[in-house]
Amino acid sequence: MLSAERLAQTFASLAAISSVSRREGALASELKTRLDELGAETIFDDSAAATGSDTGNLIARLAGTHAGPALLLSAHMDTVQPGEGIAVLFRDGVFTSDGTTILGADDKSAIAVILETLSVLKEDHIPHGPIEIVFTTCEEVGLAGVRNLDFSLISASYGYVLDGSDTEGVIVQAPSANRFEVLVIGRDAHAGAHPEKGINAIHLAAKAMAGLAVGRIDQETTCNIGWIEGGVATNVVPPLVTIRGEARSHDEAKLERVTAGIVSAFERTVAEQRAFAGQDGLPRLEVQVQRSYSRTRIPVDHMLVTLARRAAAKLGRSMKAKISGGGSDANIFFEKEILLGILGTGMREIHTLREYVRLDDMVRAAELLLEIIQLHALMAS
Ligand SMILES: [Zn+2]
Q1: pLDDT of 277 over the 70 cut
Q2: Cα separation of 68 and 66, whole Å?
Q3: What is the Cα–Cα distance from 179 to 223, expressed in whole angstroms?
Q4: pLDDT digit string (tens) for 133-152?
Q5: Whether the Cβ atoms of residue 333 and residue 73 lie closer than 8 Å to each other
Q6: SS3 90
Q7: What are phi and psi of 211, to 5 degrees?
Q8: Confidence of residue 76 (pLDDT cuts 50, 70, 90)
C-alpha cells in the first residue's frame, strides 16, 4: 500500500540533503543506496568530467516481473541556489523551507514519488514491466547532465519526466529555445574632457533594445532580454556593454525570425552610428547565438499519453495533454528519440524562497504513477 507517511519521510530526508547543481554527489549516493535496497541495478555514468559535477547521472534498472518494453522514469537531482542548509518544515500538510532557502521540491518531490512507487511495487508484489530510472545532474544549468548522459545505458524509448506542477496534466509539447549574447563595443573617453572622442556603448545598446518586442510575442513565442552589464565609471564613456537573452517558440520559423530580429536591431543601430563615427571600425558588435534545446512534440495518441489518461481515469481523475513554455531534460531525451511526457508532483513557486509542495499532491502523483506502471505491464505485454 502507498504510504503517505513514508513518502513524507522520504521527501523530508531528501530535501534536507543539499544538492545544488554540480554538487549532487551526497544525494546521488543516498539514492543509489535506496535503489539498491529496492532491488534495482544501479550505475553512474561518466558524465561528471563533462559537467563538472561531483557525480555522474544515476541510472537504475528494475527487472520486470513481465517481459516487455521498458518504461523510463526520470527526475533531476540538482536544485537552484540558495539551496544549502535547507530546513524542511511541514505544517498543515504542506512542505516549505524556513524562508531563507529554496525547498528543492523541484525536483526531489519527483524523486520521492518515484521511490515510494517502487517501494509499493516491491512490497505488494505488483506485476510490472522493466523500469529504467534516470536521475540526472545539472538540469538547472542548461540541462548539462542529460546532455552528457550515456544513452548506451538506456533501452527505453518512452516514459515520463516527473518535473512539473500539475498532477492532472501530461506535457507533450515544449518549445525550442535560442540564447544570445551581444557585445556592443564603443570607444572609451573621458566623459568631461573629451566626450566627443567616445562612443557610448550603453546608450547605443539602449537605443537598439528600445525598439525590440520582448515578453510574449505570440501564443507560442516568447523573448527575453535577461542580463546586461557594462560601464566603467560615471566619468568614463562606456566602451563595452554585454547583453544576454533568449527566445523560445514552438514554431522553428518563428524562433529564427525573432532571434534574427534581435540581432538585426543591434546591427542597424550600430551601423547608423558607425556611418559618422570615424575610421577605427567602431562601434561594432560581437554576436553569439546558440541553440539551447529543440522542441518536443509527442503525438497525443502516443502510448505514454494513453497510459496517463487511462491511469487517471481509473483513479476518477482527469488528465490533459498540455503544452509547456519551458524546456526540460525531456527536450534532450526527445533529440535521442526517447519520448518522455512531463508529469507534475504539485511543486509550486519553484526557484523561490516561497517554494512549497503539498503532501496530498505528491500522494496523488504516486498513485497515478503506480496505475501507469500497472497499466503499462498490461498494455505492453
Ligand atoms: Zn525541475
Answers
A1: no
A2: 6
A3: 10
A4: 999 999 999 999 999 999 99
A5: no
A6: strand
A7: -90, 0
A8: very high
DSSP 335: H
Q: How many residues does the chain have?
A: 381
What is the mean pLDDT of the segment spanning 247-270? 96
Question: What are the tens digits of pLDDT across the range 351-365?
Answer: 999 999 999 999 999
76 CA distance to ligand 1 middle (Å): 7
State the average pLDDT for the chain.
Answer: 96
Q: What is the DSSP string of 287-312?
A: EEEEEEE--EE--TTSHHHHHHHHHH
List active site positions. Answer: 78, 139
**What are the grid coordinates assigned to 13, written together?**
530526508
Q: The pTM is what?
A: 0.90
Distance CA 277, CA 271 (A): 10
| Omega before 82 within 30 of 0, i.e. cis | yes
302 alpha carbon – ligand 1 mean position (Å): 24
pLDDT (0 to 100) of residue 274: 83
Distance 140 CA to ligand 1 centre (A): 7
Given CA atoms 50, 53, 55, 60 in this order, what sign does their dihedral have?
A: negative
314 near 299, Cβ under 8 Å?
A: no
129 phi and psi angles, rounded to 5 deg: -80, 180
Q: Report in angstroms the alpha-carbon separations of 37 from 8, 42, 45, 118, 305.
A: 19, 10, 20, 11, 31
Distance 184 CA to ligand 1 centre (A): 34
Give me the half-sphere count of Cα atoms (radius 13 Å) on the Cβ side of residue 231: 11
Residues with CB under 5 A from ligand 1 (ion): 106-107, 163
- At 295, phi and psi to the nearest 5? -65, 160
For residue 380, pLDDT over 90 is answered with: no
Q: Rounded CA gap, 108 and 368, in Å? A: 17
* Cβ atoms 268, 210 nearer than 8 A: no
Closest CA to 237 of 187, 165, 183, 306: 187
